């Protein structure tokens, strides 16, 4: 029973993560990229929870709380930066930000 | 204590010279001059020391002004300064050439004067430190202190291609320093394993058994680091660029003093610390020496840039140092030291001459010179003097050094000595070519545009050249004035090696 | 008085220092006073010292001034050593040198660099005296190199012409080849004998080595290398003809009378070493004979007056080498002395002629000068007699001694003798040719003979010495050499041999006179005949030695220098910096600012790592 749960949960997490990653890669809109990243974060969180319940330890839940906090912070900072970028470039296209190239 | 004060005076003088620029642009020069005068005065008691003042350190006799303070006891690092006859002579050379370089910088350096003299004095301080430090860690620190100001001197006040030259200089020397540091630490570690005591002191490390492949590798680390500085073929390429691009005082210090730190390193560390490894390595070192002498002489002949030509001639002359060190007998060692000092004086003279010409003609290309004798006979006579000093004419300092090195090395390695003696044929080829292209022959157009009165040497330059000429003649006829100092030190140094 | 020996080199050196320090700003009479006066004082000192030395019947005198250098057991002194050999040389150097300086003060008077000339010549005399008086070989080497330097400076005296500069550098570098051999010889000698003090080394060498020792022979060969360089003998003779680019008094002083005989002095000084090696003695004799023949043939084809004299100098030094080779040491020094007289006379007279003809040196543009320059003609005639060795001029006595010794010596023999006699024949041939072409025949152009005491007095004195110097030494006053060289019985070859040797020059004079004086035969027709023409070209080029060295050494060296101007060792560091640049370009391409690309690369890399960790 347990093994089925952990396998399914991890598979779900992996699929979610890939969806998020694909979103980051194909989207050029910063806001949608942030949302995709949020998906990726939650996928990791799911993996932590599943692993924590599998081992019967609280570490996974602690990590999940950390991930949620991280996600919140990331969204706050990310959206703030997006706002500023929009003010400067009048667009939310990430490909406009190429100044930092070698 | 005296040596410490000497170094401190140079460091503090450098800072003061840097600050003095805020008062007046010319003030830095005078502060530098005062600093050098003070250091010369501090050097005086050392130079006058009688043999009975010599101390014995760890079984090694002939030391003066020994100073040993605890520094980082945990790693056996001490603040160990001491000088013997070799160091005194080289420190004296450093201070003397400091005056010469200052005279050559007097009018040439007009931008950021304060910072220039700061770098200038700090380089000298680093060099004096190298000659006096006998703790390997301290030695390394001075080794690094010397480099960075020199880098700035080239990169800020240099000529057209200075960035390339300065970077090349820095990379070469820095890479070799790394090698030196690694070998040093490994040597200390080896000594720690053998004796159970951790120490960076040269005296303690003398007892390390350095046989075998590991010893050979350590020796090579030291050797390559010093060979880069010397420099020897095939790691000489930084030198022609650095010399050519450096401002005149920079070239004078580089050729006159900085190269001598490499030679000093070879003399002080290689054979005493690694006798067996050095003996095993001797054939290869001799090949390097001979190739340096001949190849660089050939390269010098091919140059059109006056400073490049002189730079290659320096490499050729320093080949004799390698030859002398790896012959390691009384004659060769004495000759090596004299060769170092004589080359310091003669190359300083040649570079100052090249700088003076460039200052006037705004070119270093020999193809654009010619026939300057008729307008500037005094300058021509002085150039002639340094050229023939460089080709090793008896009666001048370089001959004594070269002759003793060759005579000494012939007793040990006849074939290498004979091959190196062929340098005696190649030296006049480039030295006389230099003279012919610059001062003799028909007058060139570049030159005709200048009026003679502006061209001829001024009193300051005559003083500068006169000091060098006096030194070389004195060395040529009375080399014993110098060898009396170095005799004891070289004898006890020689006893550490394998030579008979 | 003997303790004042150091004054002999000191006076010329002081003159040099004074002239240098005033850097040519002194009035000309003062310059003359210092320049020629210093040599005069040196000559005077030499005379006084010689009087004391000879009247006390001393064998040698040593004066230690200071220890020069010191390292281990090696401590050569700045010490002077006077014996009969050194004294004989001093006579020539200071005596003939003084006469030439007087002449030069007239000859060079109008030159803008008049003081510079005396600066160099004074330094030269100082160095030459040091060479002769040195008590050890290192100090001898100092003088040796010093005279080489002065020779360089004086050949290139008129520096504005690059050709003179080339000749000067050639002289320095070619002799330096010999000097290097000499230096290596010193190293080898020191290795085995442990000292470079000449007298001590000779004694030790005799104890250490028996006759025919290979090491001793090698050392002798190396010293011979030095000697042939300085004395312009085969195979290093090529520099001397070009050295005639210098002012004529220089040719007389340095390239005829004194410096070029330094090689002879070196071998004579180390004769005890050479006695240990009969092979090398033979080599010296062969070098001498080959050189005198080669330069005799070449002198016959030259058209430049000074070059004819230059080749005759090479040939006469060849005789000295021959004398050394056959062990006739005193005869070599005797010939050195008489040669200094008549050759200095010839060169100085040639200088007067050249000056009279507005610096014309081509003998074919001269001619008929006997009427227009009577006094130089007589003086030149006397010089020629000495050169041909017509009895009883001084050249005759010394050359006869050499030829006789050659016949009898174990390292000489009939073949060598034959070569030497053939050389004497050639000497007569080219000397008569030169005299006839210059002084006889039709005259052309105008002459302005320089007049004055300075132009005449030294020549007359030299002519007197060239005439009677030999008789004087032969009969009344022997050179003080008996204490220096091993004595032997005077050679007495069969009378017919002696007669042949004496008669040959007359034959040469007669034949040459028929060609060039009476013009019974046409020299041009003879020289341009199918057989002689290539030979003439060959002789004229100095037996193609210059061409040969050019091809073998000079050109390859220049080529080597040219192709590697940029220093091929640089390729390695340059390659590493180029590699760094390429890598830099490649990596900076990936950093294009595209955020999504970064994410993609990171994702791929993470995937790769996971793949590696999980499956491998």
Topology:
The complex is a heterotrimer of chains A (about 100), B (about 500) and C (about 625).
Chain A: H1 2-26, H2 30-55, H3 59-89
Helix pairs in contact in A: 1-2, 2-3
Chain B: H1 2-20, H2 27-47, E1 55-57, E2 60-72, E3 77-83, H3 85-108, H4 113-132, H5 136-157, H6 162-195, H7 202-205, H8 212-229, H9 238-245, H10 248-273, H11 275-302, H12 306-325, H13 330-361, H14 377-390, H15 397-412, H16 414-421, H17 423-438, H18 445-448, H19 452-455, H20 459-477, H21 480-496
Antiparallel strand pairs in B: 1-2, 2-3
Helix pairs in contact in B: 1-2, 1-4, 2-3, 2-4, 3-4, 3-10, 3-13, 3-20, 3-21, 4-5, 4-10, 5-6, 6-8, 6-9, 8-10, 8-11, 9-10, 9-12, 10-11, 10-12, 10-13, 11-12, 11-16, 11-17, 12-13, 12-15, 12-17, 13-14, 13-15, 13-20, 13-21, 14-17, 15-16, 15-20
Chain C: H1 7-21, H2 28-55, E1 60-67, E2 77-83, H3 84-107, H4 114-133, H5 137-155, H6 162-193, H7 198-208, H8 214-230, H9 239-242, H10 248-257, H11 262-269, H12 271-275, H13 278-299, H14 305-325, H15 329-356, H16 369-372, H17 374-388, H18 394-408, H19 414-439, H20 453-476, H21 495-517, H22 523-527, H23 532-540, H24 545-563, H25 571-590, H26 595-615
Antiparallel strand pairs in C: 1-2
Helix pairs in contact in C: 1-2, 1-4, 2-3, 2-4, 3-4, 3-10, 3-15, 3-20, 4-5, 5-6, 6-7, 6-8, 8-11, 8-13, 10-15, 13-14, 13-19, 13-23, 14-15, 14-18, 14-19, 15-17, 15-18, 15-20, 17-19, 17-20, 18-19, 18-20, 18-21, 19-21
């Amino acid at each position: 029973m347990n093994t089925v749960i952990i396998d399914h949960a991890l598979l779900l997490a992996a699929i979610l993560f890939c969806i998020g990653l694909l979103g980051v890669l194909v989207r050029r809109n910063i806001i949608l990229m942030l949302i995709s990243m949020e998906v990726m974060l939650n996928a990791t969180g799911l993996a932590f929870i599943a692993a924590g319940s599998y081992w019967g330890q609280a570490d996974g839940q602690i990590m999940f709380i950390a991930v949620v906090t991280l996600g919140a912070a990331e969204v706050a900072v990310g959206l703030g930066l997006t706002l500023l970028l929009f003010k400067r470039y009048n667009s939310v296209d990430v490909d406009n930000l190429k100044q930092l190239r070698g | 204590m005296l040596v410490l004060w000497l170094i401190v005076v140079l460091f503090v003088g450098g800072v003061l010279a840097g600050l003095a620029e805020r008062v007046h642009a010319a003030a830095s020069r005078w502060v530098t001059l005062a600093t050098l005068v003070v250091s010369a005065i501090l050097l005086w008691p050392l130079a006058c020391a009688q043999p009975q003042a010599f101390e014995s350190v760890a079984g090694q006799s002939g030391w003066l002004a020994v100073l040993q303070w605890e520094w980082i006891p945990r790693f056996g690092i001490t603040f160990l300064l001491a000088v013997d006859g070799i160091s005194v002579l080289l420190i004296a050379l450093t201070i003397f050439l400091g005056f010469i370089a200052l005279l050559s910088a007097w009018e040439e350096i007009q931008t950021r004067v304060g910072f220039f003299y700061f770098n200038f004095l700090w380089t000298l301080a680093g060099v004096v430190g190298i000659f006096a430090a006998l703790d390997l860690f301290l030695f390394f620190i001075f080794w690094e202190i010397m480099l960075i100001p020199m880098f700035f001197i080239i990169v800020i006040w240099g000529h057209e291609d200075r960035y390339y030259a300065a970077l090349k200089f820095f990379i070469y020397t820095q890479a070799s320093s790394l090698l030196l540091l690694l070998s040093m630490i490994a040597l200390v570690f080896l000594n720690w394993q053998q004796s159970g005591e951790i120490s960076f002191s040269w005296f303690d490390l003398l007892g390390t058994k350095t046989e075998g492949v590991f010893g050979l590798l350590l020796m090579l680390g030291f050797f390559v680091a010093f060979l880069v500085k010397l420099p020897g073929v095939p790691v000489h390429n930084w030198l022609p660029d650095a010399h050519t691009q450096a401002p005149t005082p920079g070239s004078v210090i580089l050729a006159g003093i900085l190269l001598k730190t490499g030679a000093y390193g070879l003399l002080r560390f290689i054979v005493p610390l690694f006798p067996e490894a050095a003996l095993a390595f001797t054939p290869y070192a001799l090949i390097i020496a001979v190739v340096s002498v001949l190849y660089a002489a050939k390269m010098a002949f091919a140059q059109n840039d006056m400073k490049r030509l002189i730079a290659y001639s320096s490499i050729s002359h320093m080949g004799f140092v390698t030859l002398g060190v790896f012959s390691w007998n009384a004659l060769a060692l004495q000759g090596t030291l004299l060769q170092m000092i004589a080359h310091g004086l003669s190359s300083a003279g040649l570079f100052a001459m090249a700088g003076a010409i460039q200052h006037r003609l705004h070119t270093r290309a020999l193809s654009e010179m010619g026939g300057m004798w008729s307008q500037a006979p005094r300058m021509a006579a002085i150039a002639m003097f340094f050229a023939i000093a460089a080709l090793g004419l008896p009666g001048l300092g370089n001959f004594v050094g070269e002759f003793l090195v060759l005579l000494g090395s012939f007793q040990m390695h006849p074939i290498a000595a004979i091959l190196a003696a062929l340098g005696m044929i190649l030296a006049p080829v480039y030295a006389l070519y230099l003279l012919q292209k610059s001062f003799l022959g028909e007058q060139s157009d570049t030159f005709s545009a200048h009026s003679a009165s502006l061209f001829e040497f001024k009193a300051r330059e005559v003083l500068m050249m006169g000091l060098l000429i006096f030194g070389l003649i004195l060395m040529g006829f009375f080399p014993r004035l110098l060898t009396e100092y170095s005799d004891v030190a070289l004898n006890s140094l020689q006893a550490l090696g394998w030579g008979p | 008085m003997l303790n004042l020996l150091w004054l002999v080199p000191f006076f010329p050196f002081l003159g040099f220092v004074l002239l240098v320090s005033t850097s040519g700003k002194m009035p000309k009479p003062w310059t003359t006073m210092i320049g020629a006066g210093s040599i005069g004082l040196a000559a005077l000192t030499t005379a006084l010292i010689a009087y004391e030395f000879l009247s006390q019947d001393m064998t040698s005198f040593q004066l230690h001034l200071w220890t020069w250098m010191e390292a281990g057991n090696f401590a050569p002194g700045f010490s002077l050593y006077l014996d009969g050999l050194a004294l004989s040389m001093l006579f020539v150097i200071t005596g003939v040198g003084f006469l030439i300086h007087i002449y030069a003060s007239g000859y060079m008077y109008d030159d803008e660099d008049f003081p510079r000339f005396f600066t160099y010549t004074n330094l030269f005399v100082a160095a030459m005296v040091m060479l002769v008086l040195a008590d050890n070989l290192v100090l001898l080497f100092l003088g040796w190199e010093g005279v080489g330097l002065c020779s360089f400076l004086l050949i290139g005296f008129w520096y504005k012409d690059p050709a003179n500069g080339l000749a000067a550098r050639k002289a320095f570098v070619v002799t330096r080849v010999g000097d290097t051999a000499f230096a290596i010889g010193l190293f080898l000698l020191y290795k085995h004998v442990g000292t470079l003090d000449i007298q001590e080394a000779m004694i030790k060498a005799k104890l250490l080595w028996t006759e025919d020792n290979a090491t001793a022979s090698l050392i002798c060969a190396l010293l011979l290398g030095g000697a042939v360089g300085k004395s312009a003998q085969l195979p290093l003779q090529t520099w001397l003809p070009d050295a005639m680019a210098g002012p004529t008094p220089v040719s007389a002083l340095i390239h005829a009378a004194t410096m070029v005989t330094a090689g002879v002095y070196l071998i004579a000084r180390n004769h005890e070493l050479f006695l240990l090696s009969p092979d090398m003695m033979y080599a010296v004799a062969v070098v001498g004979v080959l050189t005198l023949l080669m330069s005799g043939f070449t002198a016959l084809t030259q058209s430049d007056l000074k070059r004819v004299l230059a080749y005759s100098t090479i040939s006469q030094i060849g005789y000295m080498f021959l004398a050394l080779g056959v062990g006739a040491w005193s005869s070599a020094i005797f010939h050195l002395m008489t040669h200094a007289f008549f050759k200095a006379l010839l060169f100085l007279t040639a200088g007067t002629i050249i000056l009279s003809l507005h610096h014309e040196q081509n003998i074919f543009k001269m001619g008929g000068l006997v009427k227009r320059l009577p006094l130089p003609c007589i003086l030149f005639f006397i010089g020629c007699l000495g050169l041909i060795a017509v009895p009883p001029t001084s050249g005759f006595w010394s050359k006869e001694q050499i030829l006789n010794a050659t016949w009898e010596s174990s390292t000489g023999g009939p073949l060598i003798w034959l070569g030497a006699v053939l050389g004497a024949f050639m000497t007569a041939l080219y000397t008569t040719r030169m005299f006839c072409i210059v002084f006889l025949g039709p005259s052309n152009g105008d002459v302005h003979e320089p007049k004055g005491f300075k132009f005449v007095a030294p020549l007359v004195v030299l002519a007197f010495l060239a005439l009677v110097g030999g008789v004087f030494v032969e009969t009344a006053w022997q050179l003080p050499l008996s204490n220096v060289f091993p004595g032997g019985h005077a050679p007495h070859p069969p009378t017919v041999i002696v007669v042949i040797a004496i008669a040959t020059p007359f034959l040469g004079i007669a034949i040459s006179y028929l060609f060039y004086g009476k013009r019974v035969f046409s020299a041009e027709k003879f020289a341009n005949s199918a057989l002689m023409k290539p030979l003439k070209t060959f002789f004229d080029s100095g037996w193609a030695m210059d061409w040969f060295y050019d091809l073998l050494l000079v050109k390859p060296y220049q080529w080597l220098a040219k192709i590697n101007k940029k220093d091929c060792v640089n390729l390695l560091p340059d390659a590493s910096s180029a590699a760094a640049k390429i890598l830099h370009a490649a990596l900076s391409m990936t950093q294009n600012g595209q955020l999504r690309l970064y994410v993609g690369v990171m994702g791929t890399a993470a995937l790769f790592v996971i793949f590696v960790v999980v499956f491998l």
